[in-house]
């Protein structure tokens, strides 16, 4: 069975993650400010009674940021029993990963790989490193293995 990638837009960049890491995608809702100061933690929201932290991947990458908008999406990811999300600008699309080969990327340490999808360059974030922006104290081997591509 072929693996799929979820492509999305962040600022002017095309990024992608493997669909197997995605629990669901929801329209952006009002976020509650985080209790602790964090450069990457944008806030939290309630998803069917569960509090879900939201990472600002744009802020973590040093890209231009803006306030959340109803046109944005929250990509909810699941790591064992933990949920967390990334806010993205849109441009959601799934593509077959079969035949696509990754190559090293020097764009940013959080983006160690890229690949070509047609004439587009798509950057692949290291989800374990991004998740550490939400839970910096959780350095379990299981989490590392689960989120490794």
Overview of the molecule:
- Strand 6 (73-79) and strand 7 form a beta hairpin.
- It is globular and about 40 Å long.
- With 149 residues, it is mainly beta.
- Mean pLDDT is 85; it is low at 138-149.
- It has three helices and eleven strands, in the order βββββαββββββαα.
- The protein has helices at 57-61, 127-132, 141-147; strands at 4-10, 13-18, 22-27, 41-47, 50-55, 73-79, 82-88, 90-96, 103-108, 111-117, 120-124.
- It has a five-stranded mixed sheet with strand order 3-6-7-5-4. Strands 2-1-8 form a three-stranded antiparallel sheet, with no helix packed on it.
- The protein has a single domain, classed as Beta Barrel (OB fold (Dihydrolipoamide Acetyltransferase, E2P)), CATH 2.40.50.
How would you name the CATH homologous superfamily?
A: CheA-289, Domain 4
Fraction of residues in β-strands: over 45%
For the biggest β-sheet, the strand order reads 3-6-7-5-4
Strand segment count: 11
Put the structure in a nutshell.
By secondary structure, this protein is mainly β.
Set down the secondary structure blueprint.
Elements: E1 4-10, E2 13-18, E3 22-27, E4 41-47, E5 50-55, H1 57-61, E6 73-79, E7 82-88, E8 90-96, E9 103-108, E10 111-117, E11 120-124, H2 127-132, H3 141-147
Parallel strand pairs: 5-7
Antiparallel strand pairs: 1-2, 1-8, 3-6, 4-5, 6-7, 9-10, 10-11
């Amino acid at each position: 069975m072929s693996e799929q990638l979820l492509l999305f837009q962040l600022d002017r960049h095309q990024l992608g993650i493997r669909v197997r890491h995605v629990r669901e995608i929801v329209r952006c809702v009002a976020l509650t400010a985080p209790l602790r100061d964090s450069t990457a933690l944008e806030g939290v929201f309630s998803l069917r009674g569960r509090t879900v932290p939201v990472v600002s991947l744009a802020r973590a990458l040093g890209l231009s940021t803006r306030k959340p908008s109803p046109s944005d999406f929250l990509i909810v990811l699941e790591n064992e029993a933990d949920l967390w999300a990334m806010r993205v600008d849109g441009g959601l699309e799934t593509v077959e990963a079969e035949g696509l080969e990754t190559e090293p990327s020097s764009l940013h340490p959080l983006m160690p790989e890229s690949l070509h999808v047609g004439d587009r360059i798509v950057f692949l974030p290291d989800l374990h490193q991004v998740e550490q922006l939400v839970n910096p104290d959780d350095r379990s081997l299981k989490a590392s293995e689960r989120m490794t591509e």
